Amino acid sequence: MTLKSKLVLGFLTAITCGNVIAQSLPESQYFDSNGISIHYVEQGAGEAVILMHGYTRSVNDWSQLEIFKSLAQDYRVIAFDARGHGKSDKPSEISAYGLEMSRDIIRLLDHLDIDRAHIIASSMGGRVLGPLMPTHADRLLTVTFIGFAPVWNWSADVQQSIERRSNNMIRNPPQRLIDQGQDIQALGILVLGFSQLVVTKQELRNLKVPTFAIVGSEDRNLARLEELKTLMPDMKLLVIDGEGHGLDNLARHLEFVTSIRSFIADH
């Protein structure tokens, strides 16, 4: 049986037997990241693959998807809760976010004695990862962005939008976040640190890290990723037709799994 056939069979099996994945979630682990407890899970052996989730999400976004199980067959797969999320600590100071979120990635690698890793960053994860690409390229084997990209422009209008987003989260949070028991205050404060997570266009042009991006054709961030490709012409871009923003939407497509596996294997 060819590798492609195995991937297809595994993907179809996961769809029909999703409960198997849910029942085999890896054990929770924690490490100290400059005084903040960061939660992570890992499975498999081989080159390291770090999975980063989006805003208001958690490691469960990854650990219950076929891509986690598929990659763990050949790689050491680690998913972690960003500070302010999931089972990680949720500090209430703005200074605890911003670049501290980016540094958590390097501290995780150091904690696990990993020299270099493949990084797959969904949504907010791409924003957090951005500042590390020019400063810690030597720690990155590859980078894959899901539905977002590093931020290279920050204006007064963007700052005002972020402040409104913070206020709206604290004063009128979505009911689902309340039902989930999420720390609304931390989520509101966290976004105020986004102004630190900005890179320059020239820094992106200078990058040599192999980069891949996946986005839905209906995702408003498509234009940002298309512009990123003009800055990084060697970046591979996959547009999944008919899908909007969200890891769950994209990950249900077989090409999501096969393309990521192929990209990582090539590097």
Automatic annotation (TrEMBL):
Residues 1-22 form the signal peptide. InterPro entries: AB_hydrolase_1, AB_hydrolase_fold, AB_hydrolase_sf. Keywords: Signal. The keyword Signal applies. It holds the Pfam family Abhydrolase_1. GO terms for biological process: acylglycerol catabolic process. It comes from the Bacteria. Residues 48-148 form the AB hydrolase-1 domain. The keyword Signal applies. GO terms for molecular function: monoacylglycerol lipase activity. GO terms for cellular component: membrane. PANTHER family: HYDROLASE, PUTATIVE (AFU_ORTHOLOGUE AFUA_2G14860)-RELATED, MONOACYLGLYCEROL LIPASE. This is Pimeloyl-ACP methyl ester carboxylesterase. It comes from Seonamhaeicola aphaedonensis. The lineage of its organism: Bacteria, Pseudomonadati, Bacteroidota, Flavobacteriia, Flavobacteriales.
